[in-house]
Amino acid sequence: MNLLSVSNLNVNFHMKEQELAALIDVSFTLNRGERIAIVGESGAGKSVLGFSIVNLIGKPGYIASGSIKLENKDITQMNLRQLQEIRGKRIAMIFQDPMMTLNPVLTIGDQLVETIRSHTKISYKDARNIAIEKLHNVQIASPEKRFDQYPHELSGGMRQRVIIASVLLLNPDIIIADEPTTALDVTIQAEILQLLLAICRDNGVALVLISHDLGVVSKVAERTIVMYAGRVVEEGPTLEIINDPQHPYTQGLLNALPQMTLPGQRLNQIQGSMPSLAERPSGCAFHPRCPYATERCRQEQPSFIYSGVSSVACFLVEDMLNEFAEQDKEVNE
Ligand SMILES: Nc1ncnc2c1ncn2[C@@H]1O[C@H](COP(=O)(O)OP(=O)(O)OP(=O)(O)O)[C@@H](O)[C@H]1O
Q: Which EC class is the enzyme in (predicted)?
């Protein structure tokens, strides 16, 4: 059984008497210990998806239809008490800004001890020992000293390590990390990603890494889901997607990566921008930005097709596969 199965998830925002779709028919699965990435430009719907997984999508947003099953229990049908049981303990979230989660007026140690003691009846001294061990596990030097410090006394990278330590205290099955390194210096970003990878691998924790950067996720995630305007447009093994992207949007994201460009060359940004919810184009929402768009793309929504590399929603790929099938037929006749 999959650890998490998201099926035909639709999330809307109720805005000014209008229903605006933020997620449309999103489906994917996550196995125990697996690491997947959700990528796409700003506004693609990555964070809405991350929050929806723990049923934390606040007003004006709501889950309109679909299911999110944690093993066999549907998170969309859970009451508040059941949701509180899974948030943090089974599914933990890490955000871009650690200060969103850390309490600025409590020491690092007190926050960790409070988390431990809210779930386990142990003495302060024992909880302190566990907290210090966890700080050590996330490679914080002099953990005894850090234990007594306040969040503002730590660097951004160190604060993110503290968050990872605090998330681990409850032994979650899944960590959802929403742009966890975007606010950090490049060298620190790599360290934190490596730490997340090691922690998840060593503890059998599944990871959903949300990022706008395909380069970042390629180092961590086994599988990648590419989102555009609230829909999944391509999904498959990360390496295959990086080496042979099928959807023109995925190709555009890869071309825009700095390392794909020669020194002195300008980055090949995708022309145009992500549409707002109210202005989602008809047919394939990417068509106004797609160099290969046809009339059909403007009219119809492509369904998913397996390309041999990944699952992709694109008429271009569908036509190409049909053409190959025709050629095979001719050769065999
Ligand atoms: N609370 C909200 N009210 C109205 N619209 C919202 C709200 N939150 C998100 N949206 C809209 O939903 C769409 C998806 O937003 P989301 O934050 O999931 O994008 P994202 O891919 O995570 O982008 P970013 O990387 O910038 O966070 C966007 O068009 C956004 O404007």
A: translocase
Whether pLDDT at 261 is above 60: no
3-state DSSP of 22-62: EEEEEEEEECCCCEEEEECCCCCCHHHHHHHHCCCCCCCEE
For the Cβ of 46 lying below 6 angstroms from any atom of ligand 1, the answer is yes
Pocket probe for ligand 1: among 13, 38, 208, 227, the residue whose CB has the most ligand atoms within 8 Å is: 13
Instruction: Tell me what percent of the chain is helix, strand and coil, each rounded to the nearest 5.
Output: 40, 25, 35
Residue 264 has pLDDT above 70, yes or no: no
Type of residue found at 65: S
Task: Confirm if 92 and 196 have CB atoms less than 8 A apart.
Answer: no
Alpha helix (H) ranges present in 230-279? 238-243, 248-255
Instruction: Extract the tokens encoding 197.
Output: 């990878």
Pairing of strands 305-306, 174-178: unpaired
Predicted TM-score (pTM) of this structure: 0.93
276 lines ligand 1 (CB under 6 A): yes
The residue assigned the tokens 């025709």 is 326
> 265 φ, ψ to 5°?
-85, 150
Residue type, 92: A
> Which two three-digit tokens encode residue 74?
């549907």
Q: What's the ipTM? A: 0.97
